[in-house]
Amino acid sequence: MTKTARKSPEEKLLLAARRLFCQAGIHATGITRILEEAGVARQSLYTHYGSKENLLKAVLDTEANMWFQWFDLDLPALKCSPSQRILALFDLIEKWFEKEDFFGCIFVNAVAEHEKDSGWVRDMAGTYRDQIIDRLGALVMESGARNPDVVVQKLGLIIEGAIITAMVTQNSKAAHIARLAAEDVLRCTEWLPSKAETSASVAAMESMEST
Amino acid sequence: MTKTARKSPEEKLLLAARRLFCQAGIHATGITRILEEAGVARQSLYTHYGSKENLLKAVLDTEANMWFQWFDLDLPALKCSPSQRILALFDLIEKWFEKEDFFGCIFVNAVAEHEKDSGWVRDMAGTYRDQIIDRLGALVMESGARNPDVVVQKLGLIIEGAIITAMVTQNSKAAHIARLAAEDVLRCTEWLPSKAETSASVAAMESMEST
DNA sequence: ATGAAATTAGACTGATCGGTCTATTTTTGA
DNA sequence: TCAAAAATAGACCGATCAGTCTAATTTCAT
Fold this sequence. Notes:
Oligomer: homodimer
Number of strands of chain A: 0
Order of helices and strands of chain A: HHHHHHHHHH
Number of helices of chain A: 10
CATH architecture of chain A: Orthogonal Bundle
Helix content of chain A: 55-70%
Shape of chain A: elongated
Structural class of chain A: mainly alpha
Largest sheet of chain A: none
Distance between the termini of chain A: 31 Å
Largest interface: A-B, 48 and 48 residues
CATH topology of chain A: Tetracycline Repressor, domain 2
CATH superfamily of chain A: Tetracycline Repressor, domain 2
């Protein structure tokens, strides 16, 4: 096996902050508690991140990168139709919900806790959200939906609903329900004739509901 | 016109707290700011509510009552089929989103900002959520769906997705998208033969998409 | 009109917060 | 091996927080 390289204070802080910010809230989590959780000295936080605010920004970056990896690496690696790739996203989300340290989405937490009219939190969350929706949009375009914009908005709404439902109920089955709802949306979607993919192929999905 | 009865300090505090808790976050909103916004003396908050925590509880109560009024008064007053009542809920939600002081759902804010494993916030939000879902479930049962539980979970997820999407994007059209997604779900739902309502009636809904 | 009750203004407290500073110990690379 | 860099422990600071207290003022029922 590879050498179990000890985690750097930088990484330990990032992991502790991500968990505590989600589990207990951002404002409710004091610097001191993050330091205890990370097992790191007070000064290390400020040499590496400069402020609690910058630490939060770093946490938001890592969460966004999780989504980017799903869309840019994990989903393209699947050998299946675009429609099935869309549905496979919900399986990735389910794995996320199943982690023992899942306590909701840090983006939702951050927006909920901060000023909603303006501010860097809103800007940052909006920017990353747009980038994620763009990737989802590319997937929907690829699938040949006739009204891709509406489909993307429906799916995005279902994904956000799944995240909130999983956070509130602490039950990962929200991802499965979300997948079922997404299948309903796709089943009601009209498709362009050009692509080989037909509405029949979407109807066929029903038989391959996973796990 | 009726006498414009001056608002009591109690009510002014409740309204100011609700807006500020949603607009800027609960922890981020100090007592002093609520008092300024309400135009009320510091002591009045403590004679009427006893603590910031109790004020938050009162705000959560009023938000829950909004939902109860929708389900217990507004929707039953509509002369239409249960399926159409379900869809009409999304119109009520849209009116909610359109209010200029809509900044998300205080329940989501509260859960997001507090400990997610335990605590009174989680308990209170869970209890009220169950009561709201129960009412939605009664509506779905009434409509004669073959698998009402799954339908309720799909619809609940779509509703929560709409709330988050509207909060993040500050756009009330999320309610309309949610309604379209809900129509897809209902269109894919199997119905009991006993009731007069048939899948044909659900298909007919398409032509009456409002606004 | 009047007295009790409600409301107000604002100083004040103890606790906690994010952040700084210093001195000591540990780690690391040549 | 040994000096430089990184990380540690923990005291400390000013600001802000929720909540208390007192005294003056307004409201309102009789």
